[in-house]
Write a structure and sequence with these properties.
By secondary structure, this protein is of the alpha/beta class. It is built from 29 helices and 12 strands. Helix 23 (497-513) runs antiparallel to helix 24 and helix 26 packs across helix 28 (630-638).
């Protein structure tokens, strides 16, 4: 029991089902009264070749359309239906007495020209700054063009549309009676091509190729496009007529002020109006706001003059000003939002705070009592519209140009986060209610999206979860996609895995309906993975069914990205590979072991030294180390003639070139002069060497020497002198008087006894160690006669490989 009231404490109701008379009266069936949330609203649509069932509880289901259903163009609306559709496309009527509309001054010439061009079937682009009266001129032109086109006059709003797709769907819905169908792109283009109407498109935001697509898709329509000067210009091929809308003259501005105040202006006010016209460039919106300032001034001054004898503040909501209210300054007339907002009612100021929190979007007047907390707050929209702080945009109202910035400077946006959170929770309850039609939710799409953007993650997930099915059922799929993406991000931040899986599933279904198969597969696979982690069998089955449709569409269509095929290297099949290998093979000494040439990459022997060099071959290796290069190894891999060889004993390769021999001998002599003892000149045995000459498999690229890492000679070396003894052929048997020794990769410091030899000017060692040549494993080496030493050209070109 409540001690203060003596009554039972109220039971707390769930947040998703607020206790209100509207909820009880609009609940569908007894199950809705006992359920904690609103009744599920299931809608079936035809989307191209698919049948889409929008299920707010378990997610949308998609299946192929049954044969014989759909596919035919629906009937067009008659004149009565078009009139009702046009009335629904205008802003709603506000409660209370209708305020008189401002007169359309100094626009007769532009009005006649626009009607004449549209009657000839020409499309016109009406350009004017914000507040120049473009919407009022479109209303007048729409009244003059009635009956000129077979499909009548259609009014559309281009605010927030950067592509032509949604505008074409809106045009299709305005002409055809297709409340449960959203055609695919091919069907849409085929049907809108037959529409012959005068289309008034206000607040255009697209241009260039997007505008060209809209014009080409509807060749039988004449467009009147109203845009601001900063809107992207159309292309040169669009052939649009340009009409510029400027400001008003001095006399017209004074007349507009007198019409707004309902009385003639004084001399002081006329002079003030002239200065204001110069500062605002004669924009009609500034003088609508200036007329509101003068009306507020008259009300305050008149009330203070008539009620001087009465006690102030007794029967008034707020005390009146004690002093006479002066004429506003020129700066206040040029930026009047702060002054106008300070003189309106408290409910109107609260509505302005909500509009600032929603990015300039004013909610429908039916939502203001719940958002503001005042039962009479629905009259605030009419009050703000009469002050010029609001302007009509499509089926709703927004803050006029420049008003949002002025209100932010006046600290009206300080409570934006709290106002956005309140609006998000209210719209979450309203969009999920069974009595609210999807079309009504679609008309409030911009305010819902603005509340979704400014709410916290919990409120954003709740709002996206309830608003997404309504946007899908209303065929406003651009807003549906934006809500789903915002909801998926909010669910990820909030850690709501089940809600995140739902949003990904809906995004996959939407992408499948629009033919974006790659996006559909990615979203559905993400949803299936999340539902599998939650053990949601029913959701997993629905996701796999949709994914099977994606696979079927991919198989029916053309493969977008075929698999890559790697072609074989060009060098492997070319005829010049053998020459490249022959000239690029480095020289190999008989004292260093030869590494087998692999099929993939050559293996270069690495020789390490553990002690100081003591022999000629070791010194030669230190002076000229083998430096493998990547460019040398590449042709060896691609050589078709050279096969993989096993490891064999080192071979001494000889080459010609007197200049190279002298240089190598000089370097070796300088390296050994400090440590090696002098070698006796006599006692040289028979000169038997296994080093091939220029006519053997050694090739022209071989160089003489005893080092294990002999580099290849310069291409410009000359032939050796004729007086030098030629080396025997590789096939000759070694001297039997010499004892062979086993070669080693790393020579030991303790060398076996060998016959002393003399070092000649050529630097050729007389070591008779027998070493076979490196040849092809299938073809044995054939001894050939020793060629003339003066030639460097190989005798057998085939052996060079």
């Amino acid at each position: 029991m409540d001690r203060t009231q003596g009554q039972a404490e109220p039971v707390e109701q769930p947040a998703t089902a607020p206790a209100s008379p509207a909820t009880a009266s609009t609940a569908a069936g007894p199950a809705a009264a006992s359920a904690p949330g609103p009744v599920a609203r299931i809608v079936t649509l035809t989307a191209g070749d698919f049948t889409l069932t929008v299920n707010p509880v378990d997610g949308s289901e998609i299946e192929p359309r049954r044969p014989g259903t759909g596919g035919t163009a629906p009937a067009k609306r008659d004149a009565a239906d078009r009139s009702a559709r046009d009335a629904a496309a205008r802003p709603p009527a506000l409660p209370g007495p209708a305020a008189p509309a401002p007169p359309l001054l100094a626009r007769e010439e532009e009005r006649e020209r626009l009607v004449r061009l549209l009657g000839r079937g020409r499309s016109v682009r009406l350009t004017g700054p914000a507040g120049s009266g473009r919407s009022a001129l479109l209303d007048a032109v729409a009244a003059d063009c009635t009956g000129l086109a077979p499909d009548g006059v259609i009014r559309l709003s281009g605010y927030g549309h950067q592509q032509a797709g949604e505008l074409l769907h809106a045009l299709y819905a305005a002409v055809y009676e297709a409340s449960a169908e959203r055609p695919e792109r091919t069907q849409l283009l085929a049907r809108v091509r037959d529409i012959g109407a005068i289309v008034l498109l206000d607040d255009l935001e697209m241009g260039g190729s997007a505008l060209d697509e809209l014009l080409r898709a509807t060749p039988e329509c004449a467009y009147l496009l109203a845009a601001t000067p900063d809107t992207r210009a159309p292309s040169d091929d669009s052939h649009l007529e340009e009409v510029f809308l400027g400001g008003l003259g001095r006399a017209d501005c004074v007349e507009l002020l007198e019409a707004g105040t309902g009385r003639p202006l004084t001399e002081e006010e006329t002079a003030w109006a002239g200065d204001l016209r110069f500062a605002s460039e004669g924009l009609p919106l500034r003088f609508v706001q200036a007329a509101a300032l003068l009306r507020q001034r008259d009300e305050r001054n008149q009330s203070s003059a008539e009620d001087d004898d009465d006690e102030p503040g007794v029967f008034e909501e707020r005390p009146r000003d004690a002093a006479f209210v002066a004429l506003p300054t020129l700066s206040e007339g040029a930026a009047p939002a702060e002054l106008l907002a300070s003189r309106v009612s408290e409910s109107a100021r609260a509505a302005l705070r909500i509009a600032c929190a929603l990015g300039g979007e004013m909610p429908h007047h039916a939502h203001l009592p719940a958002l503001v907390g005042d039962t009479h707050a629905d009259a605030a929209v009419a009050e703000l519209l009469g002050c010029g702080l609001l302007t009509p945009v499509g089926t709703r109202y927004r803050l006029a140009a420049g008003v949002a910035r002025q209100l932010e400077e006046a600290e009206f946006a300080d409570t934006a986060a709290e106002e956005a959170r309140t609006a998000a929770r209210h719209y979450a309850w309203w969009t999920g209610h069974a009595s609210v039609t999807p079309e009504r939710v679609a008309s409030e799409a911009d305010a819902v999206l603005a509340a979704l953007a400014g709410a916290d993650v919990v409120a954003a997930v709740l709002l996206a979860r309830t608003a997404a099915p309504a946007f899908a059922a209303s065929r406003h799929w651009e807003a549906w996609e934006r809500v789903l993406r915002s909801g998926a991000e909010a669910a990820r931040k909030a850690g709501e895995v089940a809600e995140q899986a739902y949003f990904h599933h809906e995004l996959g279904v939407l992408a499948l309906c629009e033919g974006r198969l790659d996006r559909a597969r990615a979203e559905l696979e993400a949803s299936i993975g999340l539902k599998g982690a939650l053990a949601d069998k029913r959701g997993t089955v629905a996701g796999r069914r949709a994914l099977a449709l994606v696979t079927d569409r991919e198989k029916a269509g053309v493969e977008v990205s075929p698999p890559l095929r790697l072609e074989p290297p060009v060098a492997a099949a070319s005829g010049t590979a053998s020459e490249a290998v022959t000239t690029a093979v480095p020289a190999v000494s008989k004292t260093a072991p030869t590494t087998a040439v692999a099929a993939v990459a050559p293996v270069v022997p690495v020789i390490g030294r553990a002690a100081a060099p003591t022999t000629l071959s070791e010194v030669f290796e230190e002076a000229f180390p083998l430096d493998p290069k990547p460019a040398v190894a590449a042709p060896v891999v691609a050589a078709p003639v050279r096969a993989a060889e096993p490891r064999r004993k080192p071979v001494l390769l000889a080459a010609a070139g007197a200049l190279t021999v002298v240089v190598l001998g000089t370097v070796v002599s300088l390296a050994m002069s400090g440590s090696d003892p002098e070698t006796p000149a006599g006692g040289v045995g028979p000169a038997v060497s296994s080093t091939p000459t220029a006519g053997t498999s050694g090739g022209a690229g071989s160089v003489p020497g005893t080092g294990g890492n002999d580099p290849a000679p310069d291409p410009g070396t000359t032939a050796p002198d004729a007086s030098e003894p030629a080396a025997p052929e590789p096939g000759l048997s070694p001297d039997p008087n010499q004892s062979p020794r086993t070669p080693s990769r790393k020579p030991s410091s303790t060398q076996p006894s060998r016959t002393p030899s003399s070092t000649g000017p050529t630097g050729t060692s007389s070591n008779p160690v027998p070493t076979p040549t490196v040849t092809e494993p299938t073809t044995p080496p054939v001894p050939t006669p020793t060629p003339t030493p003066t030639s460097t050209t190989p005798a057998n070109p085939s052996a060079t490989a």
